[in-house]
Each structure stands twice: as C-alpha cells, then as structure tokens.
Amino acid sequence: MSGTTSAMVRFSDVTKTFVGDNGPFNAVDGVTLDITRGEIFGVIGYSGAGKSTLVRLINALELTSGGTIEVDGRSITGLPEGALREVRAGIGMIFQQFNLLSSRSIAGNISYPLEVARWPKAKRKARVAELLDFVGISDKAKQRPSQLSGGQKQRVGIARALATNPGILLADEATSALDPETTQDVLALLKKVNAELGITVVVITHEMDVVKTICDRVAVMERGKVVELGDVYSVFANPRHPATRRFVEATIKDRPSKDALERLRRRHPHHLITVSVHEDGTSGGRITDVLSANSVQGSIIFGGISEVTERPFGSLTWELVGTPADIARSIETLKGYTRVVDLGTAEHPLADPDAYAPGTETDRPDAQSPSAPLPLDRLAAENAAQIGGIDPGNPNPLGGFRKGNR
Ligand SMILES: Nc1ncnc2c1ncn2[C@@H]1O[C@H](COP(=O)(O)OP(=O)(O)OP(=O)(O)O)[C@@H](O)[C@H]1O
C-alpha cells in the first residue's frame, strides 16, 4: 500500500442496488465517508442495514451501482478484473463462519494464499511459522480445522488473512459465533494486528460491545444509509439517531428501562435522578459532595459505569431525600457538571426521555427485511477473496491454483 493519503478508503456518494422480491432497492444508499489509515473503524447496524454490502464494496466483492470508491488513494470504480485482483491482494478478510479449508491442516490453510501468490516453499514455511506465532497457535500447525475451537479457528482465519501483508483487514461479524470470553480474546488480537502491524481494520458488527472495545470511530447504518458517524466515545456520550441510542442503551444498560423505573419507584418513593458519569463530566465522588453540601441524602439505586475506548462511561440513578428546595439546588449544581435527568417522585413522576424500552427485532421501526440466504457463489467468492488476489468468480478455489498476481 502506498501510504500517500490519510484516507485508506474513501466512499463518495456510493450506491449499491440489488433487485429484491419487490423490485430494485438500494442496499447501500448514497454513502460518503472516509476510513482513515491506521484506524479501527466499526460499521454497526441491525440485520439487513447494508453493512456487509458496504464493506464488500471495498474489496470489490460487490461492484458499485453509483458513486466512487478509492482504496489507498486509487479509484477502484470501473477497474478491470485484473486490476481488481491487485487491489484485493492488499486487503485481507475474515468471516463469522471462518471459511477454513477442512481438508487442509492449519499450516496448510495459512500457507494457501502464499502458494497462490507463488511464494517459494522455504519463504512460505517461515512466514506460516511467524503467523502461527503471532496469532498464538503455533502448537496447532499440524491439526485440522475440525480439531480447533471457534476462537482458534478465527485465529487461523486472521493468520491466513494477514499472510500476504495486506494494508486493510475486513472483519465481517468475526466474533458473532464466539462466546463472550473468546470474543474478547479475538478482539484483543485484532487490536494487536492494528497496533503492531499498522493495518487498518474495518469491523462489521451488530454488537455495540465490539465497537466499544476496539473501534476508534464508528458508522451506524440503517436502510443502506450512514445515519451517524463519529469517534466512538462521542457517539456513546451523545447518540443523536434513535438507532444509535438503542445500540448504546442495549450495551451499557446503565439506565433503568420504563418497566424497571416503575419497579424502582415502588421501592424508592422519594426523588429520583439519573446522572451521567463521563470522563469529562462528573464522578460519583463529586455527586456525593454536591448532595452533602445541600443537606440532601442520596443513595444509588441503579446504574453502571463501564469503559468505552478505555475511558469511563455510564450513569447512576440516585434516590434523593431532602427538602424540595435543597434537592432542586443540588440538581441545578449537578447540571453545571454533567447531564442530569430529573425523574421526579413516585407521587409526581417525570418521564425519562432516553428510557430504553426493549423490543423485538420486528418491533423496531428500522427493522429490515431478513437478509437473503447466503448464495453459494457468494461463499465461494468470499473464500477466494480472503486468500487474496483471486477472481471471486472462481467457484472452486482449490480446483487449481491460478497464476499469482505478483
Ligand atoms: N446479492 C444480493 N442480492 C439481492 N439482495 C441482496 C444481496 N446481498 C444482500 N442483499 C440484501 O441487501 C440488504 C443488505 O444486506 P447486507 O448483507 O449488506 O446487510 P447487513 O447489514 O450486513 O445484514 P446482516 O447483519 O444480516 O448480514 C438485505 O436486505 C439483503 O437481503
């Protein structure tokens, strides 16, 4: 990769049109955004929002219907297949279902793209050993994929995707099939890929937890459009779009839902407030100081503070006991530091404008029609793409090596 511009990927008014059961529709609809060189960029959205399609446009597994895409300063729009193979060689990809070749050993899987790129045997062997060590599974070299756990399989997928030194790694729901602990391990590995190898990582996910753990910036997609874009902490601290708010609330779980608030009011009939705790706002200690300075007794009855991009984030719901005037003064003072939602009392309740009311997928106003089943040729194309520089139209990546492109 040339390293000449700060944008590793540039989408300019990009549209991708598919023909569905009800006629043509835009799976990606007028997207303009830059993915900065060296960052971990998240794309989040509900099923069918267009995330995979957007990311598959980067390595030309899908071709644009409108607009232009630049990868590493080079427009890939309208390039002939031969030139696209060159672009793909600089992009690694990993998938939810790993897409490993079951007939090959782990070392054989990782070596495969190097064979295709016609690396000499000794160089291949050294590179595979280096990659196995990097992803932490050197002891698994001779085993078959079926002998590995999901997390280990994804490590193989990552090693294979890195084999030919790509500048970009695309991770399509790479942790969605893993348990929470293994997810954290794989996310840590993706962070290491980014930090130690300087690779730009694009992560597609439907879990804000993934975004919160590793991404620098995030785009929220809904119905093919990017509805919110920004650095992760700001998006968490100030989500503007309803879809973003739902993702944040479902992940942080720091505020009582409507139902939980009703239960809290029954147990705690006095004045309730929810106070945001941000790095640049207030802390639990400062809240206590403000309350005691105003002769108000406070106790925490709900809340949670976790880390977003390694910085504190969350909120605490307090029950306040004191005179109405002292409580009002406390709330005014706290508002000078941070966001305070006044929930009133059991007798005179005030609604939380941000309350999260969990619903089903189909309850959501933005729910999309279910994604089409993965066509077989798409699976073959993914297999081909992740080993770098191969024609995604080849339905049988093991059916004979194509000529390398370097
Ligand atoms: N090859 C295709 N032909 C027709 N429609 C398609 C094709 N690929 C995707 N779609 C449709 O485009 C829309 C966006 O799909 P896409 O896979 O990009 O969404 P997504 O946000 O990644 O969803 P998921 O998280 O379920 O994978 C969906 O309605 C899907 O059914």
UniProtKB/TrEMBL annotation:
Pfam families per UniProt: ABC_tran, NIL
Alphabetically ordered keywords of this record: Amino-acid transport, ATP-binding, Cell membrane, Membrane, Nucleotide-binding, Translocase, Transport
Stored PANTHER family: AMINO ACID IMPORT ATP-BINDING PROTEIN, METHIONINE IMPORT ATP-BINDING PROTEIN METN
Protein's UniProt name: D-methionine transport system ATP-binding protein
Taxonomic classification: Bacteria, Bacillati, Actinomycetota, Actinomycetes, Micrococcales
GO molecular function: ATP binding; ATP hydrolysis activity
ABC transporter domain sequence ranges: 9-248
Domain of life: Bacteria
Region feature (Disordered): 349-406
Entry's Gene Ontology BP terms: amino acid transport
Keyword Cell membrane: yes
UniProt entry tagged with the keyword Transferase: no
Cross-referenced Gene3D superfamilies: 3.30.70.260, P-loop containing nucleotide triphosphate hydrolases
